[in-house]
Amino acid sequence: MAAWLLFLIALYILPSPVVPIHNSSAGGCAIIRPPRDGGIRYRGLTQEQILPVDYEIEYICRGNRVIVGPKVRKCLPNGTWTDMSLHSRCCKSFWTSLENGRVAVKPPGPPVEGATAPRPARLLRLSLIALFLLWPRPSAGKKKLYIGALFPMSGGWPGGQACMPSAQMALDLVNNRSDILPDYELELIHYDSMCDPGEATKLLYDLLYTEPLKIVLMPGCSGVSTLVAEAARMWNLIVLSYGSSSPALSNRQRFPTFFRTHPSATLHNPTRVQLFQKWKWTRIATIQQTTEVFTSTLDDLEERVKEAGIEISVRQSFLTDPAVAVKNLKRQDARIIVGLFYETEARKVFCEVFKEKLYGKKYVWFLIGWYADNWFKIKDPAINCTVENMTEAVEGHVTTEIVMLNPETVRGVSNMTSQEFIAALMSRLGGMNPEETGGFQEAPLAFDAVWALALALNKTVAPLKGRGRRLEDFNYNNHDITSEIYRALNTSSFEGVSGQVVFDAQGSRMAMTLIEQLQGGSYKKIGYYDSSQKNLSWFGNDVWIGAGPPADRTVVIEEYRFLSQKLFAAVSVFAGLGILLGILCLTFNIYNGNVRYIQNSQPYLNNMTAVGCMMALAAVFPLGIDGHHVHRSQFPVVCQFRLWLLGLGFSLAYGSMFTKIWWVHTLFTKKEEKKEKKKQHLEPWKLYATVGVLLAIDFLSLVIWQIVDPLHITVEKFTKEAPKEDLDVLIQPLLEHCSSEKMNTWLGIGSQHITNPDLVLPAGVVYGYKGLLLLLGIFLAYETKSVSTEKINDHRAVGMAIYNVAVLCLITAPVTMILSSQQDASFAFASLAIVFSAYITLVVLFVPKMRRLITRGEWQSEQQDTLKTGSSTNNNDEEKSRQLERENRELQKIIQEKEERVSALRNQLAERQALRNRHRPSIGQNQNHNAPPPSSQTDPKSLLPPPGYPTTDNHSLPPSFSNSSSLYPADSKMSRNHCHNSQIPLLYK
């Protein structure tokens, strides 16, 4: 005891004070050198200098000395420093906490080393009055155990506003209990972490390096708890959190000494998945604040929804401004949205939600339930939305929250029910509105955290005593005491005001989940979920803005587009009439096949044309058949009918006409030197062979197409359409097509749908082949327009039909490809092109024949002659033709002989004239060299043809000799050159 008295009354001389001095010059403050054992931290300066206005200096002391007086001073505009009346000194620390007594210091303030009185020697008198009890360790004395706590009084989650009073209330109850830590008293040393890891780092340093030693750390926010729990292992400290929900904190390798009474945020995810399945949602969206707690929570949610067969269609994140993320949710049609962010960010999010109209009967938001009840009504300068806007935007959202207040009336280890706890907390808060108090819902967790720590410390007293240790012996290098506290916490199990407190292997609290819904501006409980038992307790009082839970996406109604039945019926009538016309023409042609006029038109080719036109017209019917008439499974058969009918019909109809025009051009448009060859007889089998080749090419291509890649049905999707009567429903128009993917690529169409494969009879090879055939047909028709022949007497009508068919096909084919997505227009173009082509062909080829036979009566006379003479008529015609050909050949021989005789006579005449010229004397020639030659005076009678040569009478000569001017010059004078090389043109029929 004497030693204690000597220690308390010992006096130490204080070092020189650290005093900033006044600077009379404007614009700065003067500073003197630092004191002994002290220093000044200000931009590295250690000597007297003039510092600018608003400059701050901080005093620090070396060793174990402490600052007495202001630690920080600021330069004022008047050239002085703040707190000039107070001195700052470096003093040795003084222990004023006695084990069995108390110390009173006069004057008030911390005891300092070397107190001196206000005399010139600058000594300060220090009076210490120590009151001691006479016994060494009385039973009423308790040793203090210090708890270092970080309560977020502000920031993203100001949970310390209610959690700190709750923890202090628990400490008071524990310290008043004689059965829990009877020899110890728990004391709370706390700071405001502002829910900021950076600020928490500084505060953690102060907690660790400022006496007294803390036996346990109690952080709040997940970000702060992550930092504290990761660093605490270096000081052998147990960390017990009351408000950390990050799933990352469940990692025992990273946080070996961490416990929490707040369950992990992943405990929300089984409840969310259960609600998704209850309301039959298979598509959700998420938006999160980019912090570790929400990122890890969302990762866990993705795994759980994937197992449940639920898709996360949109995942958005933001750091500070959620505007872009919310717009993306609206753009991608997010309906069921899970939001993971702190309370302050939640206000920003829902302000943007209001602007984007991402709320109402079509949307459901899932939020975290530990916000204040009126979090959306708190005025926030960071947003520009009114309270009414926010209230409208958040209406109907669902929250999931860990059960933080025991719903049952049970007295736990604190001898309080949950209702009594709330009443006591409200009294301690001094009338503060719970809805405006941050952390009010988590307050029971902070209360139970203190009780869990107290019970765990109480369990360690006996084991430590058995090993000769005490809790007060704890230091940052003692592993044994930390391990004992860890085991005690790990085996904790008691009934608290928040329910049963039990920790799992990762140190996280296990609890039930409360489900609430915002109804009319206030939260209503709608159910509980026990994830351990997979039991959902549903109250059935959920309320929706619409008729019920909204759909997880815009309801899309698939609606097939079908061909207009009126259009189909009208075109079908025309096609049917065209088929009747084809039958009539075919019948007429067959019935009059023996008539010479019909025979000269190659009736078999005309029959093929009529059959081809009827097949093409028959293709109109399957061309208009769609899903309205047949089942989807039968639609490919319809596609094949379209292809084969029109393909073969085109080959027969156009191929037969092309064959006619081809052979007319071949035989009757040759050069003069090939006239003999062109007069050869046209054999019918050549015509049929030509048609057969064209038909075989089409047939082979269709067979290959059918085998390699047959036509099948595909569905084209159009832009969704919103009906006027319901904004939450979209119409998805669909159109069925006949398409052939692989063959289309080979044919040159690519991915283009074949709406009318038989008319358009795909591009590439087929389009190229048919197109060239059409163009060639137009060319041949033009070349033979002036040819006249009896062998194919209707080739001009065939050319006209080819013009019309080619123009219609060349125009219709590309148009139908462009209009393939418009079923009515495409069908109209294709079908009308077929109908008009067939009608024009039949009318042009057959109607003139009918008119001629009927008007002239040729068909009657020919038929009567045929009945009388049988086949003699045809035989007589052939005999007459052969006789005329023989006479023609004989006349040609006679003419050739006469031409040779004329040539010989001319040669003789030329020789005689030359002989006369040689007998004339040369003198006479010189004198009369300018006179005309004697031949010019020759008697014209000498030029007459010799006897026996046919005269120039028009009746006796052929037509080519009727004009003598074609043989002799007009002046009846012929020179040697005229006679030597003259040619007499001969025309004959």
From TrEMBL:
Signal peptide (UniProt feature, chain positions): 1-20
Principal location:
membrane
Question: Some GO term, biological process aspect, for this entry: which one?
Answer: gamma-aminobutyric acid signaling pathway
Q: What superkingdom heads the lineage?
A: Eukaryota
GO terms, molecular function: G protein-coupled GABA receptor activity
Instruction: Report biased composition (Polar residues) as residue ranges.
Output: 859-875, 923-940, 980-989
Renumbered to this chain, region (Disordered) spans 859-886, 916-989
Q: Enumerate the UniProt keywords alphabetically.
A: Cell membrane, Coiled coil, Disulfide bond, G-protein coupled receptor, Glycoprotein, Membrane, Phosphoprotein, Postsynaptic cell membrane, Receptor, Signal, Synapse, Transducer, Transmembrane, Transmembrane helix
UniProt membrane topology term: Multi-pass membrane protein
SUPFAM superfamilies recorded: Complement control module/SCR domain (SSF57535), Periplasmic binding protein-like I (SSF53822)
- Tell me the ranges covered by the G-protein coupled receptors family 3 profile domain, including all copies: 574-869
The cellular location(s) given in this protein's UniProt record come to: Postsynaptic cell membrane
Q: Where is the composition biased (Low complexity)?
A: 956-967
Q: What parts of the sequence cross the membrane?
A: 567-592, 604-623, 643-664, 685-708, 759-781, 801-819, 825-847
* Regions of compositional bias (Basic and acidic residues) in chain numbering: 877-886
Enumerate the InterPro entries for this protein: ANF_lig-bd_rcpt (IPR001828), GPCR3_GABA-B (IPR002455), GPCR_3_C (IPR017978), GPCR_3_GABA_rcpt_B1 (IPR002456), Peripla_BP_I (IPR028082), Sushi/SCR/CCP_sf (IPR035976), Sushi_SCR_CCP_dom (IPR000436)
- Family stated for the protein in its record: Belongs to the G-protein coupled receptor 3 family. GABA-B receptor subfamily.
Designated name of the protein:
Gamma-aminobutyric acid type B receptor subunit 1
Name the gene that codes for it. Answer: gabbr1a
